[in-house]
Amino acid sequence: MTTTGLGYDIHRFAKGRPLILGGVEIPHHEGLDGHSDADVLSHAIADAVLGAIGEQDIGHHFPNTDEAFRGISSLVILERSADLARARGVRINSIDATLIAEAPKIAPHVFIIRERIAAALGVPAARIAVKATTNEGLGAIGRGEGIAAMAVATVEHPD
Length: 159
Hints:
The chain is α+β, with helices and mostly antiparallel strands. It has helices at residues 40-52, 58-61, 74-87, 110-121, 139-142; strands at 2-14, 19-21, 24-26, 31-32, 91-100, 128-133, 146-156. The protein is globular, with a radius of gyration of 15 Å. The model has no long low-confidence stretch (mean pLDDT 96).
C-alpha cells in the first residue's frame, strides 16, 4: 500500500543565527528562529514522512520544551523520522518539497541540499525534489520576515 504525507513549517528570521536549509548552511544575513537549528525545510519533510506513516508530528517527537533537542541538527530529526518508518517496514519512495522565501536564492544550493536530505532519509537523491518560490511580496513571507516550506512524502507499506 502506498500512502502520502504532507508537511508544512514556517520560521521567522532571527539575527545572530546561521541559516540552515536541508542541512546546509546558506550564506545570509539572518538565520531562522527556533529551538533546534530551525531548518524549516527539514522540519516540513520530517512532518510529511511522519504523516505518511500515520505518526504524530515533529512537535510530539521532538518537543521544543525538551532541552535535549535545543540546537539539534534537523538532519537528526529526518534520520529519526526515517528510522520510525523503517521500524514499521515502510520504504520512503519520494519527497517533493518547496521553500517559500523572498531571499536568499536557493538554486545554487539545491544539489547539496538534496544530497544531505537523501543521506539523512536513506533515499537516493534522484527521489528528492527541492524547489523554491517567492510569495510575490505578499504577507509575512513576502515582506521578508521568514521562510516557509511545504513537503509531500510518498511511502510504501509492506503487504
